[in-house]
Structures are given as C-alpha cells and as structure tokens.
Design a protein that fits this description.
This protein is of the alpha/beta class. The protein starts with a strand and ends with a strand.
Amino acid sequence: MTTIRVVVADDQELVRSGFAMILDAQPDIEVVAEAGDGAQAIEAVRRHSPDVALLDIRMPGTDGIEACRVIGAESGCRTVILTTFDTDAYVYEALHAGASGFLLKDVRRDDLVHAVRVVAAGDSLLAPSVARRLVEQYTAGGPRRTAPDARLDVLTGRERETLLLLARGLSNAEIAAELVVSDHTVKTHVGNVLAKLGLRDRIQAVICAYETGLVAAGSPPPGGAEGRGSSPA
C-alpha cells in the first residue's frame, strides 16, 4: 500500500496537532512534518517532499496563499487550503495560486481524510455549495455578462455542456449519467475542456464558467447541487 506523505501547517497548535493526529491514525497516511507558518511549511516541503500540504490560509509572515504559490512552483506537492469561508477575503486568490482543494476548518474527521486521499490521487476537491458561495462572492462585483465570451468558442457543444456540469459540482460519474455517456467519454471531455481553456483542474473550470458568463454570478447553476458533498475530479 502506498503511503501518502503530508505536511500540516496552521499557526494554531491545537488545530494543527488535531489534524495531524487524525491523519496519522490512517494506515495509508503519514504526517511527515508540522509547521506554524507558511515559511516553515515551504521549508518542510523542501525537506520531506510530501504528496500533500495542508495549509491554513491565514498564518503570520508567509501566509497560506504565498506558501501555496511557492510550493506549486518548486515541487509536485499538491496543496489543500484550510479556511473559514465566511471571513477569509483571499480564497479566490488562493485558487489562482494553485490550490487543489479547500476545507472548512471545522471539517469532519472523515471528510479531512477523504480530501487528502482525493488530492493525493491527483484530483481536486470543492464542495458545490462552497463553489457557488466562493465564486459569486468574488465575481459579483464585476460587470454582468449577457452571454458567454469568445474564450468558449474553442469548445464543442458537448464540451460546453461538460463545463456547465462541472460548474454544478458534478463528479465524472454524475456527468456521465446526465449526458448518457461512459465515464471514459466524460474524462475525455473534461480533459479537452481543461486543455483548450488552459485550466489546471476542475476548480479552475468552475471559476472559468462564472468568469466567462456560462454561469451567471448571483444565480445557482441549473439543477443546483446544494445537497451534494465535495466532488472529486
């Protein structure tokens, strides 16, 4: 069994040690280092070459966003941002810094473990309800589009449908059921969408769907997904 190596960074010792204890108790996860700020997290990643770094978005000195940016530029380690979405003003910036997922700091034990496994496998993770809150908060101030912009012209009709379903927070299996195609076909469509639009993962695809006007900020994506859990890529 492959062991997932993790660095946990949070300036609150009780939070940090609690997360580390939960993760270390899993047979397939090893916490190789804990860090109290972003600079320590960067150094820990350089020293231990972990698979995943769990980063609090707010830390003294080098914060989670800058740590995420540096870690992504220097290594193959994937990052999960810890946040309190109601108050953090920099979550949107963290998306563009390269975060592969987001967790609320009051995350349940099972969801924490699941998120680390999903991100370590190369997927991204974002709860649909959080996606809408996040994107609408940071796009509502911009001009409202009446139609999708020209960036989407490179997509086929089916690829546009796929992007819309990604914005709804659907998993590949759910998209396959919606479009009545195979999982393999969905993976191909998702890959084409990301490649054609120059996007890193499905989190950026959600942002793109709003920024281009495919989904209007202020209006839930068709079909909604408020009750769904976090959806991996």
